[in-house]
Amino acid sequence: MIYFRPLPLLTAICALLLAFLIGLGVWQLERLQWKLALIDQVERNMRAAPLTLDEALAKGADAQYRRVTLRGRFDNAYELYIFGATDAGQVFHVVTPFTTDDHRTLLIDRGIVPENRRDPATRRAGLVEGETTVTGVWRNEDQPGTFTPPPDTAKRLWFVRSASGMARTANFHLAAPVIIEADATPNSGGWPKGGQTVIAFRNEHLQYALTWFLMAAGLLGVYLAYHVSRDRLGLKRQD
């Protein structure tokens, strides 16, 4: 026969902690389902047919990771740059204002160049002049983090995708505070290299959930072991 004489205060504290740990584990499982749905949505967006600019603007923030096709002209005199890094080292994303045929302006991330190609004079063949068509991925702007360096406006250099900040510095009005990342269509001379959209979502929610559940199990084990050590939990022999 099992006997159990729980210590009231310890039991109350452990019950609260156990509920808290289990709650965190359940919350991480809910986050897991949300993240999986997000990844599925982004993958479907990338496979979908390109939107027109009007369609993308109508979707607002939901146009994130949708492809869009624009026709108009680059304003190469106002190139801007976003610092980046690849396995090969430091690179710079070349961001150029693009004015559509109906006079709306957006920012196009044309792709990356190494440090020795940042100066437009070193890649004149890639400076598209005249009317052209661009297809790219619609990306909402990012907000700088606590440790994000401030932009070097003298060099037109940013460390975060801040479409609004770039527009203010270059003194032009955007149709939307987004940056459209050009697809991998080759540019003359090979630079910039487009097709740099990275889809990488950290998805460690299952590991986090297991961690919280294991901590809950450990707490329960310590609680029971403590009661056994105090002869408050055990088996009573029946005569």
Characterize the structure shown.
The chain has 239 residues and is of the alpha+beta class. It has 2 domains: 1-18 and 202-239, no CATH class; 64-190, OB fold (Dihydrolipoamide Acetyltransferase, E2P) (Beta Barrel), CATH 2.40.50. The chain has helices at residues 8-47, 53-59, 163-170, 205-229, and strands spanning 2-4, 67-74, 80-86, 89-100, 105-113, 132-140, 157-158, 178-182, 233-235.
In brief:
About 35% of the residues lie in helices and about 25% in strands.
Layout of strands and helices, then pairs:
Layout: E1 2-4, H1 8-47, H2 53-59, E2 67-74, E3 80-86, E4 89-100, E5 105-113, E6 132-140, E7 157-158, H3 163-170, E8 178-182, H4 205-229, E9 233-235
Parallel strand pairs: 3-7, 5-8
Antiparallel strand pairs: 1-9, 2-4, 2-6, 3-4, 4-5, 6-8
Order of helices and strands: EHHEEEEEEHEHE
Categorize the overall geometry: elongated
- Count of the domains: 2
Uncertain spans: none
Percentage of helical residues? 25-40%
**What is the averaged pLDDT score?**
92
- Sheet bearing the most strands, described? 5 strands, mixed, barrel
| CATH level 1 name of the largest domain | Mainly Beta
Question: What name does CATH use for the topology of the largest domain?
Answer: OB fold (Dihydrolipoamide Acetyltransferase, E2P)
Strand content: 15-25%
Number of strands: 9
| Radius of gyration of CA atoms, rounded to a whole number | 28 Å
Helix-strand category: alpha+beta
Second CATH tier, the architecture of the largest domain: Beta Barrel
Task: Tell me the distance between the termini.
Answer: 11 Å
